[in-house]
Amino acid sequence: MAHQVNLEYLSRVVFEEKDLLFPDSVVGTDSHITMVNGLGILGWGVGGIETEAVMLGLPVSLTLPEVVGCELTGSSNPFVTSIDVVLGITKHLRQVGVAGKFVEFFGSGVSQLSIVDRTTIANMCPEYGAILSFFPVDNVTLKHLEHTGFDKAKLESMEAYLKAVKLFRNEHDNSGEPEYSQVGFKGFQIAAEKQNDIVSIHYEGSEYKLAHGSVVIAAVISCTNNCNPSVMLAAGLLAKKAVEAGLQVKPYIRTSLSPGSGMVTHYLSSSGVLPYLSKLGFEIIGYGCSTCVGNTAPLSEAVLNAVKQGDLVTCGVLSGNKNFEGRLCDCVRANYLASPPLVVAYAIAGTVNIDFQTEPLGTDPTGKNIYLHDIWPSREEVHQIEEEHVVLSMFKALKEKIEMGNKRWNSLEAPDSVLFPWDLKSTYIRCPSFFDKLTKEPVALQPIANAHVLLHLGDSVTTDHISPAGSIARSSAAAKYLTNRGLTPREFNSYGARRGNDAVMTRGTFANIKLFNKFIGKPAPKTIHFPSGQTLDVFEAAELYQKEGIPLIILAGKKYGSGNSRDWAAKGPYLLGVKAVLAESYEKIHKDHLIGIGIAPLQFLPGESADSLGLSGRETFSLTFPEELSPGVKLNIKTSTGKVFSVIASFENDVEITLYKHGGLLNFVARKFS
């Protein structure tokens, strides 16, 4: 995992090039890149479109954002884990609204947070929308770097430099706190008569009962905690005590353990807790993205049938950093984030409808009630195990392994040709169609004339809604494509695994079952093809529009494109024929992706929306672009009903306008090298 390598091997904090010192920084494609901000390294994630351009020599442009100061004071309760603190901070930052901004933490409470706590907090940026969350270097940082094997002379030079340029945080001197731009911090609508519904299932020879709130997926994922051994060890110690008390996890619950790196496996194994996690069903399933992006083994037919029969709101509990609806599994409607030990606790309880303080997790073989406090490890226990098993030698061993390389990787065959040899039979990698109609010189900006609305969406449409990464549903357009190429449902894999195939990804665009299109009136990956009046899969409708030569737009509310920086959430709509998105506001990275692929990001005027303007989405929309397009210029849109209203062309700078005029960043780069 990129973030693991950044934190444990590549991070320098301060670079030394001959006689020049300068701060470390990183831009990467992984959404967890922001973890390095916990080490005092400025870093953020970008999408594949920008990365492809950077690989070909273009710079990454960024309009200087606001910096929001978040003051931390006091200390946490002994029973609170760092993940609980993280989720609390995330909740507050969501409420304040920090989308598209930098966040920097300051105040006396910062000193109470270890580096592993800080990196975990910094990693949660996708959950509250900030570009990054920064912790300045201080004495805590220096001690961590010393613990992980940094040279003493290097640390002394680093400290002197950072203090000289005023980038070092002095926890004993709050008189010089920086000045900031700003300082601050859906129910499921189950009918009352159905809230106590229970459905019986038979599984492996026994009978169990499922209800609203039943846990069916429990995943301990350390990608967001990979440098935080304390919470992973706490989960292991809790599992050990649970097994010793005779507690079990119901077998139909899909449990899994996904370590962020081999180092996590090493300390879980050497500390002796790994076998106890295994006994509760938390077996290691791999080291890459797994449950949190929908890459999990399917639930049993018994569970699926029960959920459908009772229309149950079942739950997934995971220690990842994303819980967007429908992300884990299309049949699991409620997903919750929790610390690793609480994931294990909820798996044992089998439900999220529990008060851990007053209700037991279960009973021991004698019938005695066992409560969470009976098996919760103390901080002293966790600290002792951590001191014994997470040591300096582990970090040194990791560096040695990286430098030695991997024999299996080195032995893989690779083609020697300059150009990639496309395999026409492959259903994983296909030559994309982005450049099929590319001209040597960009043409003048064309008007969008009589465009139909492909989708009429509300607020907080995530990149998961737009381009899901999880499993491919058997009834989806992507499934039909793969079936026609001789694949069985077991071979479909996931959208994330097939993102090298534009035919699959285009068919998967807006294929999330939780997508709420106002034309349909309920969650479903469907829309209306207005010329014929048919209700179709989104891909099928878009395909008809393209055959008819009709351009498309999308209407949306606030925070369109929030969540992961996923380039296919822009590439997919582009290949569907979408020319513009008209939203109340955007998540910045996604807006950049739209421009980067050649889709115009249009924004309602402040205080206006589709509803306030009386737009049903069934009209057609037309607009023209001025010859001299400028950042933030107002454009007039005329509908087929005669309504005319103004919108903002949401370009922030001349670079974005240049890219849009070329039809996107990929076209710009292709022309540059042609």
Major beta sheet summary: 7 strands, mixed, barrel
Q: Write down the Rg.
A: 26 Å
Strand order of the largest sheet: 17-20-21-22-25-24-23
C-alpha end-to-end distance: 35 Å
State the share of residues found in helices, binned by percent.
25-40%
GO molecular function: 4 iron, 4 sulfur cluster binding; iron-responsive element binding; metal ion binding
Domain Aconitase A/isopropylmalate dehydratase small subunit swivel: 479-605
Protein name: Iron-responsive element-binding protein 2
Keywords: 4Fe-4S, Iron, Iron-sulfur, Metal-binding
What does this structure look like?
This protein is an alpha/beta fold and 674 residues long. The protein is built from 24 helices and 25 strands. The strands form 8 sheets. It has a 7-stranded mixed beta barrel. A hairpin with a 2-residue loop joins strand 1 and strand 2. The longest helix has 16 residues, at 229-244. The protein starts with a helix and ends with a helix. Its cofactor is [4Fe-4S] cluster. This is Iron-responsive element-binding protein 2. Residues 479-605 form the Aconitase A/isopropylmalate dehydratase small subunit swivel domain. Keywords: 4Fe-4S, Iron, Iron-sulfur, Metal-binding.
Chain-wise SSE layout:
Blueprint: H1 2-10, E1 14-17, E2 20-23, E3 25-28, E4 42-45, H2 48-55, E5 67-71, H3 82-96, E6 102-106, H4 115-123, H5 125-128, E7 132-134, H6 139-147, H7 152-164, E8 182-183, E9 198-203, E10 206-211, E11 215-221, H8 229-244, E12 254-258, H9 262-270, H10 274-279, H11 301-310, E13 315-318, E14 334-337, H12 340-349, E15 362-363, E16 369-370, H13 372-375, H14 379-389, H15 392-404, H16 407-410, E17 448-456, H17 463-466, H18 477-483, H19 502-508, E18 526-529, E19 534-537, H20 538-547, E20 552-555, H21 568-576, E21 578-583, H22 588-597, E22 600-604, E23 621-623, E24 634-639, E25 644-649, H23 654-661, H24 665-672
Helix pairs in contact: 8-12, 8-14, 18-19, 19-21, 21-22, 22-23
